[in-house]
Amino acid sequence: MSFFSNEIIGWYSENGRSLPWRETKDPYRIWLSEIILQQTRVSQGLPYYEKFIKHYPDLNGFANAEETDILKLWQGLGYYSRARNMHKCARLVQRDFGGFFPSTYAQLLQLPGIGPYTAAAIASFAFEESVAVVDGNVIRLVSRYLGIQEPVNKGATLRSINTYVQEEIQGFKPDLFNQAIMEMGSQICTPKLTKCDSCVLAMNCQAKKEGLVNRIPFKSTRTKVSQKYFNYYLSQNQDQLSLVHRNSKGIWQNLYEFPMEESVNSKVESNATLIGTFQHQLSHQRIEAKLWKVNKIPSRLSQNKGIFEVALGEIGSAYPTHQLMNKMIKAWQEQLTK
Ligand code: SF4
Q1: Which residue minimizes the CA distance to atom 2 of ligand 1?
Q2: Which of 40, 53, 80, 278 could bond to 44 as cystine, CB 3.0-4.6 Å?
Q3: Do 294 and 166 share a structural domain?
Q4: pLDDT digits (tens, 9 = 90+) for 205-218
């Protein structure tokens, strides 16, 4: 019997946190929780999960919802394409599978927005298929345990980690094994302040033996991040503000924001009052946004035809927005109350 699997399962049985998605076999709830948890930590994801379950307790309710309503509930989690893909996925499951998720890893992988990690999570937690999950926590734990000094963002390294975990899961309850390995990675073998002193794997851990805990996992090159400059225009007509629907592909698709234009650098708009400058970081883009108060939206804006007016109270509730918008509105309101 494997030392690794026995130890992590033993540890999890005594120390695993009780979370609502661990108490269910419903693939819809498992799917929902996994996609939310790809965006955020458990403590922040839990209220989102509860909110979604309250509004849409089953897949059919979720599939029948309007996309705008899904985006509204998703607000603050980022990566809005994931929420849109979830909606597409739910509708496809409703149409092609009678509202029930397919029960195998291979079939799940065919659905929109479901990659190897989510497919493995649903297949193992809901249907007990013996397929191992490999997320960032698992990669860190296994690469340290085995002392892997190759970059973990290389295909060959990932495949060897996958193979190892897939062998380790054999002979164990797949849901239990997967929960245990993920929990060990997130609670004990953490990126910083790693808890090797209370780790049940410590006596066989290569990284610990070789003093490499803080250096593993190795990564080759960093993701290239591009710099963008956005000028947003806030135009107020009594209690109404100008808004536009972001319908182009790319970031924040289908969310609402103030009319804006992108510039090649951080240029200054002369006929306007600057409310503030905001730095916003996305995975591949660093955005410097300026919010300008204007009497009238500049006529050169390509979005002009799509601009409409709404009351401030409707922004974020009836019209879902992104976090940068929330930051800008907050700063503007703080200025008004000064
Ligand atoms: S001993 Fe430390 S580095 Fe090794 S698996 Fe445990 S927590 Fe991770």
Answers
A1: 196
A2: 40
A3: no
A4: 999 999 999 999 99
Minimum-distance ligand 1 atom for the alpha carbon of 202: 1
Nearest Cα neighbor of 94 from 111, 79, 82 is 111
d(CA 94, CA 62): 10
Domains held by the chain: number: 2
Calculate how far, in angstroms, residue 194's C-alpha sits from the geometric centre of ligand 1.
7
Work out whether strand 226-237 and strand 285-294 pair parallel, antiparallel, or are unpaired.
parallel
Count of alpha carbons within 13 angstroms of residue 109, beta-carbon side: 7
Atom of ligand 1 nearest to the CA of 200: 6
Q: How far is the CA of 189 from the centre of ligand 1 (A)?
A: 5
Return the active site residues.
Answer: 34
CA–CA dist 316, 338 (Å, integer): 23
The whole-number average pLDDT for the span 22-37 is 94
Atom of ligand 1 nearest to the CA of 188: 7
Nearest CA to ligand 1 atom 1: 202
Distance in angstroms (rounded) separating the CA atoms of residues 249 and 311: 26
Q: Does position 250 have pLDDT exceeding 90, yes or no?
A: no
Q: How far apart are the first and last CA of the chain?
A: 67
User: What's the rounded Cα separation, in Å, for the pair 306 and 300?
Assistant: 13
CB atoms within 10 A of CB 2: 14
User: Tokens standing for 266?
Assistant: 């951080």
Instruction: Give the model confidence (pLDDT) of 55-64 as tens digits.
Output: 999 999 999 9
Res 239: pLDDT: 87
**234 and 201 co-located in one domain:** no
The whole-angstrom separation of Cα 320 and Cα 69 is 8
